Amino acid sequence: xxxxxxxxxxxxxxxxxxxxxxxxxxxxxxxxxxxxxxxxxxxxxxxxxxxxxxxxxxxxxxxxxxxxxxxxxxxxxxxxxxxxxxxxxxxxxxxxxxxxxxxxxxxxxxxxxxxxxxxxxxxxxxxxxxxxxxxxxxxxxxxxxxxxxxxxxxxxxxxxxxxxxxxxxxxxxxxxxxxxxxxxxxxxxxxxxxxxxxxxxxxxxxxxxxxxxxxxxxxxxxxxxxxxxxxxxxxxxxxxxxxxxxxxxxxxxxxxxxxxxxxxxxxxxxxxxxxxxxxxxxxxxxxxxxxxxxxxxxxxxxxxxxxxxxxxxxxxxxxxxxxxxxxxxxxxxx
Length: 334
Known about the structure:
By secondary structure, this protein is mostly helical. It has 17 helices and no strands. It has two domains: 4-226, Alpha Horseshoe (Serine Threonine Protein Phosphatase 5, Tetratricopeptide repeat); 252-334, Serine Threonine Protein Phosphatase 5, Tetratricopeptide repeat (Alpha Horseshoe), CATH 1.25.40.
């Protein structure tokens, strides 16, 4: 599993904040988060623009505008709008630092800096700037740790720290025999469970992180339980449906196919099905038809994928490896 999973999952708490001191700001943030969870990026942008104009000194407007832009590109498989994202993150960082300079012991001022650093890590990870991603991610962790020091029940910080502690230990498990290296994987899981089942109102990415941890551990029973809990709370989330489908690939291939088709249909309903997403979803469906023994349907889907010709340069680059695997699967099915 690639290193950037560690840093990109630092985004988790950024989308799911607890109650902010300003009730109107809190209501706007939560409304925007609901739109993001439902992949309604247009309405989310309107809400976050409202935050930016109403609270010009608060970093959340800029931060969530960047978040929405990043998530929309990732969801649809489109190139990142780098200039827009970087400008928004730079503005958010300046505002967060300005607030921190007025009161360095404030829970929320530390939280704002942690969020911006977490998003910087996520963005740099997506761009392949791994050293920058790791640097920003470590800084985010330090501010989340300070949030917990100020308020031990601050659930959103546990989601970030739980994700970090698990994946840090997982990727350095070959060093765990050393006396100064601690295996914190179970601590990470405990932190994540505390976060998602605590008072964090919308812990979608925390749930998703925990599902993938259990998949990594091949604990599919627990992964299924967490994924089912998540889909009850976030029934429209394509992210959770994709993760739940992956869990079902371990045993219930027909259910996995059904979930992948639901995701495909949701893109089609929005008229936002890019070739990038079409190829990935059809390939996953074809693989599960093969596992079911229905090679005829699997072969038909491979042929459908390989008949697509109008790839953008970006899609061709991103899909190079997958298209090779589709070709290999088609040859195997002939």
